[in-house]
Amino acid sequence: MKLARFDEGRVGVIVDDSHLVDVTAAAGIDVAQWPPVGPTALIARFDELRPRIERALREEPRIAIASVKLRTPVPWPNKVIAYPVNYHDHGREMQAGYRATHQGFFLKPNSSLSGAGEPVVLPAVPGREVHHESELAIVIGKQARGIRREDWRDYVFGYACLLDMVVRGREERVFRKAYDSFCPVGPWITTADEVGDPTALDMKLWVNEELRQSANTRDLVLDIPGMVEMAAAVMTLYPGDIIATGTPAGVGPVKAGDRIRIRIERVGEMSVDVVQGTNGATAVFDTPYTPDIVKQK
Ligand code: MN
After folding, report:
1. Minimal CA–CA distance to 17: which of 194, 230, 222, 268?
2. Which of 119, 228, 273, 284 is most buried, by CB atoms within 10 Å?
3. Distance between CA atoms of 263 and 251, rounded to whole angstroms?
């Protein structure tokens, strides 16, 4: 199943290339609720709610996807976990002397999450580059601490496309990756049963029509079972938690007017516009910085 969130927080199931069905009522979602934890609860109770959702799919009208604004599927997870330097070629282009296997993860703020229908808003930080990072997102389905590597599948709800946007620099990584709209996730969650084996998925990212990143999840340094195991060794994972699995080589700057497109085999394709914002200036980025990216073949 492909679970989308749209407009003012409604939940829909994608039924073909251009239509969804609104299952907000069947999923027990109150769009006026704050904080918006309905989708988090839906994931936790998905097995129980699935028959009601499937009935709604048969009974409710189809809506053109083009007529709605797609939002981020899980706006209020417990956390967004992200693994840095998790493809060797990205490690080489950044000249990083470490890999995720022995570095661990960082966290992105939930407030950085945005959806396919929302732009990436560049902060007013002249002298700095904002880069795209193309990543597969894992969405956790069950609460657990201490997950054994061989049991990882039991805890994964689904997958999505994710852009880990970042202001390049040498300052605190989380600070540089924390701006609002710096974590587009979508265009929806594709449940694990539809994706099958996620350990050999092609992933590509274009800026406008230029192919910038092309990789396969088989090249992950810390693999998907390892990422689930490592995160759960440290923290309790909750339904709706998102894991950004790392980016391959080809990261680079985006500017206002660009359109970023990410496609992951069997997961989905998401395009987001880049616009210039007027706020976000901070003393941290007063000193200009140009990253030294070593182009990989
Ligand atoms: Mn990243």
Report:
1. 268
2. 228
3. 15
pLDDT digits (tens, 9 = 90+) for 229-255: 999 999 999 999 999 999 999 999 999
Reported pTM:
0.98
Output helix, strand, coil percentages for the chain, rounded to the nearest 5: 25, 35, 45
Q: Which residue shows structure tokens 């693999």?
A: 223
Tokens of 240: 């709706």
- Output the CA 27–ligand 1 centroid distance in Å: 32
- In the reported structure, the alpha carbon of residue 127 is separated from the centroid of ligand 1 by a whole-number distance in angstroms of 21
Burial class (CB in 10 A: 0-12, 13-18, 19+), 113: buried
Number of H helices, E strands in the chain: 6, 20
Instruction: Return the DSSP state at 75.
Output: S
Residue 8 Cα to ligand 1 middle (Å)? 28
Can you tell me whether residue 10 is helix, strand or coil?
A: strand
What is the CA(28)–ligand 1 centre distance, in A? 33
Indicate if the pLDDT at residue 15 is higher than 80: yes
